[in-house]
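BUG: 3D viewer hangs when loading the predicted structure for this chain

Environment: internal workstation, default settings.
Expected: structure renders.
Actual: progress bar stalls at 90%.

Input used:
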Amino acid sequence: MDKIREYLKNPLITAAAGIVVGAIFGLIVLGWGLFPITYINATPANLRDDLKVDYLTMAIDSFAKAPDNAVAIQRWKDLGPDASTVLDTLQSSATKLTPDEITAFRVVVKSQATVPGATPGATSVVTTPTPKPASNNLIIILSVLCLLLVVIGGAIAYILLIRNRTAKGEPTPAMQAQELSKAAERTSYQTQDQEPPIAQFMTTYMAGDDLYDDSFSIDSPSGEFLGECGVGISDTIGVGDPKKVTAFEVWLFDKNDIQTVTQVVMSAHAFNDPAIRQKLESKGEPVLAESGKKILLETATLQLEARIVDLSYGQGALPANSFFERMTLELAIWPKPAQTAPAA
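Structure tokens produced before the viewer hung:
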């Protein structure tokens, strides 16, 4: 799960995944499932060869029982360019029709369906071109439009998400954040006469990383999955890009608990603004962001201590200390001591 989330933070991978999912949804779900192609006003010329033979057999049988030259010629024309071939096939194969019935039909269509201006006595079958379903043109148009949409979308994604961030070889905010996390000094709990945590992570937010949402898997020393924890953007302030983050969510998930515990780390402006604070209280317990501050989260079997290693506020037209330029947090997790039942 963590690897998937890391991959999805890459704009190129996200764009490629979106194209693949969109193509699958558009072709299979919409194109073949909900809105399949339907053919209307098609002629016998669109039938398979064996069905063309069946169609002409029925036409000749109908003509033998109720002779109508105009109807016979029209049915003959509806077979398109393959009419003569189908009739020859029918003539040489064993059918329920008699040779006389086939010959009578041939004489009618050959003698009366002649091309105007032809030499007298010469016979030529008038055929109509095989009509192409109107939906074929629509499919071609839609396919071209979809291809153009994919190309344009890919170009926009490249310009906005990739080229701008990699211009002049400059690292992206997410890459800078990773380097800061690696360089940050981790707490040595052993030197503090404290039990070392079963998991310890460092995460950093840098302004410009609008997709910031770090999560980590918590495993026991034996490799058993115990839960997850992480930090993500909770709220922003102002408008425009990049986002002006004014609060983060620190959360802890315990597989043995029914709910995820969350606390909201707020900027000084957000913490002291009653409207913003009231809005964010629904997400979790509010906490004022201060360098060195420790935040404790507890579930049924886990304890998490989040320490704000470093933070700095951004500058601009917004109120002072209202949005973060950078913040690094250390997450340490311990198993919660089992509670013993009181003696009877």
